[in-house]
């Protein structure tokens, strides 16, 4: 796959439309940073112009109800990085993170680390700190974990295997 990363502000997805079209023609999966620091319009561009398969971040989609409905209907996977969001001042405090609201609106949210040596915290740190800050429920944590495999680029058989492992773990614990 290929991804659009780094600072969003001043670098809308539309600047990269041609290169992503060429990548798609090669059969590559497409991801893009959109809606972390950049406005909801960048999310629209990533969807409509880059034709992404998965979105990195997407937090600011919450500012556009029609966009939220579109993302929920499409079950577009959003790879959200709470500790990065905090470091970049996307949220002032983790207790204000939009993930609970994103889940409530049916968004296909996952939790991820983003350059852990720079932003601090690997994936488990993101889970633990966010869960403590916003009071994620057991069901929300399970849903986020399931979303991560459902939104992965693994073959369907591997996805099913990992989802079954989550279900077995949940049943036993």
Brief account:
This protein is an alpha/beta fold and 173 residues long. It has helices at residues 17-25, 40-50, 65-74, 82-87, 99-104, 116-119, 123-134, 138-150, 156-172, and strands at 2-4, 30-34, 54-57, 77-80, 108-111.
Biggest sheet features: 5 strands, parallel
Number of strands: 5
Give Rg in angstroms. 16 Å
SSE string, helix = H, strand = E? EHEHEHEHHEHHHH
Spatial strand sequence of the major β-sheet: 1-2-3-4-5
Q: Based on helices, strands and strand pairing, what is the structural class?
A: alpha/beta
The separation of the N and C termini measures 35 Å
In quaternary terms, these chains amount to single chain
Which geometry do the CA atoms define?
globular
Strand-residue proportion: 5-15%
Portion of residues within helices:
40-55%
Mean pLDDT: 96
List keywords for this structure.
9 helices; 51% helix; single chain; 5 strands; 5-stranded parallel sheet; 173 residues; alpha/beta; 12% strand
Describe this structure in words.
The chain is 51% helix and 12% strand. With 173 residues, it is an alpha/beta fold. A five-stranded parallel beta sheet has the order 1-2-3-4-5. Strand 1 (2-4), helix 1 (17-25) and strand 2 form a beta-alpha-beta unit. Helix 8 packs antiparallel against helix 9 (156-172). The protein is globular and about 50 Å long.
Secondary-structure map with pairings?
Blueprint lengths: L1 E3 L12 H9 L4 E5 L5 H11 L3 E4 L7 H10 L2 E4 L1 H6 L11 H6 L3 E4 L4 H4 L3 H12 L3 H13 L5 H17 L1
Parallel strand pairs: 1-2, 2-3, 3-4, 4-5
Helix pairs in contact: 8-9
């Amino acid at each position: 796959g290929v991804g659009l990363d780094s600072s969003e502000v001043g670098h809308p997805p539309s600047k990269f439309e041609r290169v992503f079209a060429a990548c798609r023609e090669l059969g590559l999966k497409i991801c893009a940073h959109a809606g972390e620091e950049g406005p909801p319009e960048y999310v629209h561009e990533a969807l409509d112009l880059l034709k992404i398969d998965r979105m990195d971040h997407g937090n600011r989609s919450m500012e556009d109800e029609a966009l939220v409905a579109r993302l929920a209907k499409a079950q577009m996977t959003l790879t959200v990085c709470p500790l990065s969001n905090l470091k970049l001042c996307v949220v002032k405090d983790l207790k204000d993170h939009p993930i609970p609201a994103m889940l409530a609106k049916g968004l296909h949210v996952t939790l991820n680390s983003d350059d852990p040596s720079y932003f601090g915290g690997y994936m488990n740190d993101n889970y633990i700190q966010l869960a403590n800050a916003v009071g994620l429920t057991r069901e929300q944590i399970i849903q986020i974990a399931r979303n991560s495999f459902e939104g992965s680029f693994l073959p369907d058989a591997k996805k099913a295997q990992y989802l079954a492992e989550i279900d077995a773990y949940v049943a036993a614990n």
